[in-house]
Amino acid sequence: MNHRQPSLTERRKAATQLDIARAAAALFAERGPDGTTAEDIAQRAGVALRTFYRYFRSKQDAVGPLLSGGAERWRALLDATGPGVPPAEALEGAVTDALSPHDEHATEQLGWTRGLLRAAQDDPALRAVWYRVNQDSEERLLPVLTRLAGKGADPLEVRLAAAAATDAVRVALEAWAITDAPTTGAGSPAALAVRCLHELTGGMRLFKG
């Protein structure tokens, strides 16, 4: 697959956004969203308030890059799947890999997600960001699944598959976040996501080979 590499300016912008997102998540964990202001986040991130608002509309919106990081990794893994791999196998492999903490960064990512999803239970604006991240993930997943499904696949079935796969991961992360289950093994995000994936896609023709 030929993908355009991000420019230096785009990489710097993404890095700044992630710094702000981490600052927001840390403050939410310490004080809760209600006890945190955009000014607090900007100060913690070491940026001017105008820089904060250049990238984000609200304090809750600031954590979007952290919540979307896992989905981006999942899509990248799925997009790297070679030809001839059945969609069901490709999806399960990508989900398992993306939600398994292979390194410190992945473990940290899951920790941020757990904290933010717990905070979102009592913050409608934060829940709205989470839902928007998932909607965006579903839309970005669709062309990847369309390619994997191959010519002749029913567009409606591919659309349903993208929705089901996205919801499988969403529900798994939400269920895991409210528990004290570990990041690996039984009850982990990867294990729950595979279970949800099987439940949601088991009856779809696209996943029956």
TrEMBL record:
One Pfam family name from the record?
TetR_N
In terms of superkingdom, the source organism counts as Bacteria
- Alphabetically list the UniProt keywords: DNA-binding, Transcription, Transcription regulation
Q: Which chain positions lie within coiled-coil regions?
A: none
Protein name (Swiss-Prot/TrEMBL): TetR/AcrR family transcriptional regulator
Query: Which residues fall under the DNA-binding region feature?
Result: 37-56
Among its keywords, does the record have Transcription? yes
Listed InterPro entries: DNA-bd_HTH_TetR-type_CS, Homeodomain-like_sf, HTH-type_TetR-like_transc_reg, HTH_TetR
Where the record annotates domain HTH tetR-type, the positions are 14-74
